[in-house]
């Protein structure tokens, strides 16, 4: 969909997932590391199931939006002269399709079909790879700025595909999970950036598609998006850190029960010991 | 062989291997994971020996087909003006040759020459690499569509070479084995696609070799082929899952022997316990 | 800053870090390997904290130098015709920004926020990657020599980014640390080389920007820079080796205390045994 | 050295090392695996020392040959017009230099300076990388065939650099050692091929530098070179296998001493048991 909402929609999907992961992975990491009693393996498995379902729903919404763009009937072949029709829509359809398949693998992993661990990561990696593969040949015959702004996206897309492929072999590696989160956030914000640059809403002046300065700015802008993604993740990490710390304190107070008098001192000591452990 | 059967033949070889692996690897994985008594290491070693032999035979068939194409005598140098002859046939010959060598390494691994484990994977990886290497320089001076449809194949070929190279170090990694299977299936179906696009059998209209829309469709089509490969693998996984599950039930019934009366309940319980284990 | 000091400044930063690491990593490696009592984990953690602070300061210096170049006020958008301004300065600003962020992560790792181990390496790797990313699009519309001398730098930059990314998963791998050190030194010396080639100080004749021989020489020159980096590292390794060896001897003499008479023979024996251990 | 011997000399160096490794690594692998008493760690460490010395000597020979080509005095800068001189010779000098440095690291690893294990592999990997780096920019302004035949070499060179870099982390991985050996052999034979194609000795007709068929043949020819390298390695593996097997038999006969009568049966049984072990 060569339009503002056609880029804003996938951008929002990626942004939602990125922001959600920027809460989930720090929570998972910190509750395990700070040995709180609120970490449970089953809880995170259920979260992954829900994530898979949301992925499937987002993909369906994306596919239906593509269809709606064409009046709920999207032909592939023009009956008259046997030429291809709506190829760009079918490209977007394909991208959504692979994310949908990835969501379905997430769901299947939860159910007792003994799907090998790691297949969910592989399918997500493939979805990102095919997104990049299609985008790589997507921008033929367009203006220089259009080509460039899409090719910059490929850095995030193929970087994401590679990172998730590594996760097949290094599951639960917290640095890779954080890295994937940052790449997902920037993909989301960058889709919005593309929407604003290529299809500026009425009222905003259009970008000069041929000006080389615009291309230079786009390069810098991509880096700033990433810096913003990092800052967002730092904020969310700090909030989760405070939440987990407070919760642990609260829990330890509950535990001590009647030994109320000396509890405060103990809890503080435990806290201090905890924060000094490597 | 710039002809329909010249692409259909290798396509069928890859497809046969891909489909066979889509049965073999789930079977191997599930019989080990579900702790059936039908898993035996020796059985799979013998299968690999047979696979090696089949690879050698397929390579010989391919080489002979190339020769037959030239009346059982394929000259390399033209005696008159010292120019090269039949270079395309010799290219195909070379591709088959490396798959043949890979098959021979598979066979040698079985026999007691103490060939290092992993050498069979390395030789298969090299065969895929040289296939890609030759294809990369294969399409010089051809139409845009011809070049493009072959270069898309390279994604599957080099992806396969990389995956199999990883298997040298991570043998028996089930996710890599599944991934290799999917890349082999798509290589097979894509060879058939090339045959239909470039050398349409009589009765089917020819493709416009210059139309950019055809190139865009080819990109999407490759993704759909992969989606089909994934669906084929899911079906075959499900069938194997049912087969292994039923077999285990049957086996456990056999074991209990005269304790027939309470066997059903036990078997069901064992089944449930099995399907709940991580 | 398209000027001599604009390249000499970052060059000095990289060189300082490279030379410092060429002392620090051999010291760390040898004091651990030779089982001296002067190795302490805490000491090296504090060193990393100081390194992080120095990185932040260097980045601030770099950013302020860019500002000073523009009279302490660097506009991004020209108010009159809405065109971009000072894009090259903003590019350099962005590069410094990411190194500053990397320094901040180093500092945070030290404090008790339980930042995951490896995140400091990832952020440094990202800083190098974005440096390369910006440089890759930096040299558009410049002379051939200018483009080439910057693209040669990318080999060191992306090589460094890759090496540091590996360190996320293989922390404390001494070979990787040495390799990173050599790539940092060559980045430093190469920035100085760029400064001398593109902005020769007054008195030195200018380079012919179009002569292909200059480009050929630049390739060789880069290799020689690397050879010099290796020689520098060997010298510093040898010095540290002698220092650690002498210190161990001295320490063992201190330990024996009153058993002065037979201490020399023992210390020598211990030393010999130490140097013979694999 | 744009001449026949200038390519034949490095080709012979690589070929010698490749063939030697094709004996050494199977011997090392089989004597360890077949539990003969002729495997000793020290023996292979000394071999590596000698290899390092030979590398240094080969590099010196190469450097001196470059000098001799210019009458024992190779200027870099032309005093008259400050232009670069003999850049191609200096490029070859640089390649030899890095192999010489790699040899020196091998030698240093043996002596008790506690040089980190893996640094010898890294330095060899860097030598290959810089060889490829220089070759990549070596062939500017030459005929198409010249460029192509050198760029094909880069596949072996960068493949080798990558393989040896992997060996830094997976030392003594026998499959990687065999792979490196094959890449070294093909590099050697390919240098000879370049010598024959570009500088045919008198009596052999010259190659047409522009004919595209020649380029196509070169691609196939490279694959055949690799197939020959594999066959050479198989022969040498088989010979070593027979040698180690016979030696083990002989040794076991020596051991049994006076129990001569029943020794033959035992030795055979031990042999059979040995060849059946996984």
Provide an overview of this structure.
Four copies of one chain form a homotetramer. Chain A has one domain. Chain A contains eight helices and no strands. Chain A has helices spanning 4-33, 41-68, 87-110, 119-136, 144-169, 174-198, 212-256, 263-276. Chain A binds chain B through residues 82-84, 87, 90-91, 94, 97-98, 101, 112-114, 116, 118-119, 122, 126, 130, 133-134, 137, 140-141, 168-169, and chain B through 29-30, 33-34, 155, 170, 173-175, 178-179, 205, 211-217, 219-220, 222-224, 226-227, 230, 237-238, 241, 275-276. Chains A, B, C, D: Its main location: membrane. Chains A, B, C, D: Pfam families: DUF716. Chains A, B, C, D: This is Transmembrane protein 45B.
Strand and helix map with partners:
Four copies of one chain form a homotetramer.
Chain A: H1 4-33, H2 41-68, H3 87-110, H4 119-136, H5 144-169, H6 174-198, H7 212-256, H8 263-276
GO cellular component, one term (chains A, B, C, D): membrane
Main location (chains A, B, C, D): membrane
Protein name (chains A, B, C, D): Transmembrane protein 45B
């Amino acid at each position: 969909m060569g339009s503002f909402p056609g880029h804003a929609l996938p951008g929002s999907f990626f942004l939602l997932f990125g922001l959600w992961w920027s809460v989930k992975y720090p929570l998972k990491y910190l509750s395990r590391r700070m040995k709180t009693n609120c970490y449970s393996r089953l809880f995170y498995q259920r979260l992954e199931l829900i994530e898979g379902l949301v992925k499937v729903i987002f993909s369906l919404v994306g596919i239906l939006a593509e269809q709606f763009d064409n009046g709920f009937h999207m032909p592939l072949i023009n009956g008259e002269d046997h030429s291809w029709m709506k190829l760009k829509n079918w490209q977007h359809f394909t991208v959504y399709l692979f994310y949908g398949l990835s969501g379905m693998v997430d769901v299947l992993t939860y159910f007792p079909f003994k799907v090998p661990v790691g297949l969910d990561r592989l399918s997500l990696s493939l979805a990102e790879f095919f997104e990049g593969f299609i985008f790589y040949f997507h921008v033929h015959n367009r203006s220089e700025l259009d080509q460039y702004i899409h090719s910059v996206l490929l850095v995030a897309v193929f970087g994401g595909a590679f990172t998730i492929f590594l996760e097949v072999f290094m599951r639960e590696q917290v640095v890779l999970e954080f890295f994937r989160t940052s790449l997902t956030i920037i993909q989301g914000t960058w889709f919005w950036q593309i929407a604003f640059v290529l299809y500026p809403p009425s009222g905003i002046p259009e970008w000069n598609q041929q000006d080389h300065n615009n291309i230079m700015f786009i390069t810098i802008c991509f880096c700033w998006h990433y810096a913003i993604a990092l800052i967002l993740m730092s904020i969310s990490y700090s909030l989760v850190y405070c939440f987990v710390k407070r919760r642990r304190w609260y829990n330890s107070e509950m535990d001590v029960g009647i030994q109320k008098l000396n509890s405060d001192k103990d809890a503080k000591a435990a806290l201090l010991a905890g924060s000094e452990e490597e």
